Fold this sequence. Notes:
This protein has helices spanning 4-7, 22-28, 43-53; strands at residues 13-20, 32-38, 65-68, 71-73, 84-88.
Amino acid sequence: xxxxxxxxxxxxVLKVTVRLFASYREKAGTSEVExxxxxxxxxxxxxxxxxxxxPGITQRPDTLVIAVNQEYTDHLHGLSDGDEVALIxxxxxxxx
Length: 96
């Protein structure tokens, strides 16, 4: 059986770990996912991919708040092999 892994050269693939928190974890049914992406993948590409795979998370992937290696980043940020990506849901509550 041929898989994407056997077709793509290892230098053309990067692996990232995606951590899901709070409501995102509940909607996806998991707290962590390992994903293989093209070498030139951005945070925005990953956000779109996650929204397709887990449609309960969001209808608008461009609005997801994302941190890479514990630092908030924009959707144009390029990902690297071994990055830890966190999808952070909106926070509500507090006092008016």
